[in-house]
Write a structure and sequence with these properties.
The chain has 132 residues and is an all-alpha fold. It has one domain. It is 86% helix and 0% strand. The longest helix has 37 residues. It is globular and about 40 Å long.
Length: 132
């Protein structure tokens, strides 16, 4: 079981692994993110389930992570959880328009977004590993 002091690091580690894995997938198969967003934009049920999952995961991160204002990683992880709650809410309420905007934004610099996600993933993994 994780100690309370390590929860932010564990969340950062798994978020970093997710970001790095998603980035590698996009870099190996360019256009997969755009195809995924197009699929989300077209399918009401998929958008709804995704909105619920993102909102629930964000709420879990927000509630489980101990907010310690003197610990910058704790603050970042809490903001990440809150941002996920907001994103899930937006997906449920304005999913089609939000995803249409996201697909237009993503289509402009697809490879750059993947590289940024990989960089963020590596940084999160390294920060988390330094905490253990």
């Amino acid at each position: 079981m994780a100690e309370t002091a390590d929860i932010s690091a564990w969340i950062a580690l798994f978020t970093g692994i997710y970001a790095l894995g998603a980035a590698i997938g996009e870099l190996r198969s360019p256009g997969s993110w755009a195809a995924m967003l197009e699929d989300f934009e077209k399918r009401e049920g998929l958008r709804f389930v995704t909105g619920i999952v993102v909102l629930a995961l964000g709420a879990a991160i927000y509630l489980v992570n101990p907010l310690r204002p003197d610990d910058w990683l704790s603050v970042v992880v809490t903001v990440l959880g809150g941002g996920m709650v907001i994103e899930g809410f937006i997906l449920l309420g304005w999913g089609r328009s939000y995803l249409h905007f996201a697909s237009k934004l993503l289509g402009l610099v697809n490879r750059i977004w993947a590289m940024m996600a990989a960089g963020i993933g590596i940084v999160l993994i390294c920060v988390a590993m330094l905490r253990f």
